[in-house]
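An example makes the point: we let one protein speak, the chain in one-letter code, the fold tokenised, and here it is:
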Amino acid sequence: ASDVYKRQIWRFPYLAAKYGGGIFLLIYILLALTFGYSMIVAETAIGRMTKKSPVGAFSSFGKSKWLSAGGWINAIIPVLIVPYYSVIGGWVIKYLVEYIKGNGQKLAADGYFSDFISNGASTEICFAVFALFTLAIIYAGVRNGIERVSKFMMPILIVLSVIIAVYSVTRPGALEGVKYFLVPNVKNFSWMTVVAAMGQMFYSLSIAMGILITFGSYMKKDVSIEDSTRNVEVFDTAIAIMAGLMIIPAVFAFSGGDPDTLQAGPALMFITIPKVFASMGFGTAAGILFFVLVLFAAITSSIALTESAVSTFEDELHWGRRKAVVLVGVIMLGLGTLSCMGYGPLSWVKLIGMQFLDFFDFLTNSVMMPIGAIMICLLVSRAAGIKAVEAEAVSYTHLRAHETR
């Protein structure tokens, strides 16, 4: 739940704002309920069939090069995501510290966020704190305690988010934002709308990044894959809609739907949410609570991504945990530093017209994950067999039917 929340609360609103509002939401829901549902079931079933991590799961069905490549593509994606994801986590730390210091009004000022991320040293320190904390948890093996605390805090975060969403949509001028977000307008459609919606579906549902295969490898036979998938889909869609209602109406309320603000990208949450809190009577307290809860959600999500990467090096290269954690840490700090500096000292460097963070986000979500998904489809149809995967997916139903006889 915390993984889905953090990935939706940060990424979904800015993509919806940028790529057409209601038409983006419609395409996202259609993709999630069709292709997304099938992929979650297939990946989880493959994991439970093989009891192995992505590379091992692919290799279980043959030694051909395409199977090996498919496994490694799915395994490498979290290694590339977690560095820039940790940069976002660092931004959360910065905003939490500022709210604790009572600087909520300063955070709501126009230009604050751009000034912050252009300061390479400040963003690097926040990123490093977040990344090293994640690595320490993975290395020490105490992640279960963090995850238990996060599960306790998630209901509080959801309730607070509902309050923010209600407050946001009731601001003067916000109804235009509600209309933009919920009512599909074909004029706003472009093929990038489809690409962005597909990328977000992969990202929020953890499709084609090895996590679902690993999760499935630990799943017992008496757990229904179909029921679990249905629960994830419902929760994911609800959080996506709530995240959009928190952010997009506020953009219209506080900036009149300024096109530049709608195109703000990953920064949109950090630009808009402080303005919402600044207009509240209890904005500082709300800001502290919100960013504490988002930070816990971010940490648990980062732990899942990092653990997946570490486990791959342990299982497939037969490395010890210390060596695997060190390697992942070096990659995190190296690529994460590029993402930090890409808005500051290295802002002049562009990769296909994008800053480093935006490029890594586009590469993993809109390029590598679709390729990984194709490889999973080939695995199911050509190697594992559709019948075998289907039998694994519905084995709980058959088991329950047998027990009731």
About this structure: The chain is about 80% helix and 0% strand. Confidence is low (pLDDT under 50) at residues 401-405.
